[in-house]
Amino acid sequence: MKFQRAASIVLMTMAIILIAGELPVTGDVKGQVAGPLELNMMSLYFAEGMELDPLLPATDEYQAISIPNGFIKDGFRGLNLLPVGHTYWKTVGTWYTQPLKQKINLGGLAEVNIYTYKPEGSEGGSPSSDFRFEIMRGNEVLLDLFIGGVRITEGTDTLVTVTGSFPPGNDTTIEPGTSLALRITAKCNGGGAMVKFGSTTYKSGFTFGSNALQIHTIHMGPHHVVLEYKDAFMVPWTKLHTELTLDRVIIPNMDMSSLMNSVNMTRELHWDRENKPGEYEMFISLGYSPEQNISQQFFLKIPKVNIEWFKLGNIGNMVQNNSSIVVIVILALAGLVMYSRYRGRLWNRRVKLLSPDIRKKERASQKTAWKEMDAKRRQRWKVEREKKVIEEEDDVDEIEDAEFRIFKRKNKKGAPTFRPEELDDDQPMDDIEL
Prior knowledge:
alpha+beta, 3 domains
């Protein structure tokens, strides 16, 4: 009964709160990135397997691809009449990205940087070469860049740089499932030259404006901070440069986790932390490298809101933000119901033990009669237990005073006997008859 009264008090308190309809809770606040289309500078680097990778090379070992010798001695006008020749365009190689996962826009300035080299002492001296760089959408050329008269000095790394611009308007697009590519052709008048790439020293590649990486939204709640972003190249989130600053304090990434939103093909980064109601200044930096990143600043406020529980529209928020309280209330209600059912069945069994006359009386009279009967039954049990204890003590005394007799076993008739006096000291044991 004490438990039932305590449970009733708890439930009544909760009911008063529900009727009053107000409890201070906090909910998520969201910062949305809005505004015109903005392109950020990014780079694609030559990587192993003739791929383009937005991540910086992480190894010191470079790779190389040869620049074909385009000079051919074919004589005057190709008639082979004089010992002269011509230099022709030769393909160096084509690098591709993986098919994009999101639509992206290209625009602004594009810059290509490659490192060329020729070993010292090789045949032919230091060649000169013209280069053509074609940025392509699949097999379609979007931007054609040219540079001529590049002298590749023996034993020295030569950086070749060429720039150009995409059409204005930032409306050059690449659809999902299509690759971005860069093709290099050269018109080199000597052999032995090469292009170095794929290392921290030789970061050959090209830079351009793009919205391949975008911050979508930022959520902040009492227990977490969530960053939602999209990445057309789907770089593993653990390899991205990510930095979250909250009120000028950097939040460690060791507590960061990730989820994939398959509906709009975005990824969410979660920082688990306790956030009290108040105003927060948030700065988020995200990029393929620390040097090339996108940054956004948000000012968010987590209010302390009085939510009316009895309104249907707020039940979801109440359950989400106060799940522990809801679980406790449900368990208390379930325990009270089970206890009430047990008490009801127990009382019905007790009433059946009463006389028919008492069963017809009121519940108070039934309780009084049951208590009297229960007291008599307990007194009877007490007397029986005392009597049983006395009997057990008497049995112990009889055992202690009992006489014990030793009975000598008699031999059966006709059974062989052995008398010790008949044994002769000189007689062997084998001659004795039993």
